[in-house]
Amino acid sequence: MTRSPDLPPWLNSVARPATLALTGLRKLVDLMAGLLFIYMALAIMAQILGRYVFGYSIAGTDETAVFAQVWLVLLGAGIAMRNRQHVGVDVLIRRTPERVQQLARLASYALGMWFLYVVFVGSFALLGIGMMVQSPALRLPMAIPYAALPVGMAYFMLEFSVASLPDILRPAQARANAAALT
Questions:
Q1: To pair with 115 at 20 to 30 A between CA atoms, which of 56, 149, 164, 178?
Q2: DSSP-assigned letters across all residues of 99-164
Q3: Which residues, in sequence order, are CB contacts of 94 under 8 Å at separation 6+?
Q4: Does the pLDDT of residue 3 top 60, yes or no?
Q5: Residues sharing a CB contact under 8 Å with residue 92, sequence separation 6 or more, in sequence order
Q6: Helical H runs in 53-97?
Q7: Is residue 8 predicted with pLDDT exceeding 70?
């Protein structure tokens, strides 16, 4: 990463390690999502083969496949945010003056972060319950699937900030990027 002339020097010294950490985290999340998907597919296939070919149901495969799906969906939300694949309707906002667009972006970011924060904080109560409750088939603590909620929300908040803040802090660059996309 080269030095950015529009950033203060102290921020340039932080930007490189932060970029490397973000890149590493994204690779880890991508790896985990891939492994979860593969496991989920194999577990379901094993359950189908066991049940219909061998006449024997494998205990717990459907339960762990559901756990993997929960983790995959919540990590996948952050991956979709990174790739800007979440639905956004901005037809009216684009027709307003620049200042209104800037305020709308800021309000959208603030409301989105507030919602994600509320879910993140609320998920810890669910984790507490999950420590006391066990899954029906394998008797695993339900905190395992419930932990996907705070982890997924934290990752989504990070990717939401990375995707949104440049548009808010540098509106001229956001306009140029939007013009390049159309």
A1: 178
A2: HHHHHHHHHHHHHHHHHHHHHHHHHHHHHHHHHH-B-TTT--BTHHHHTHHHHHHHHHHHHHHHHH
A3: 101
A4: no
A5: none
A6: 61-82, 91-94
A7: no
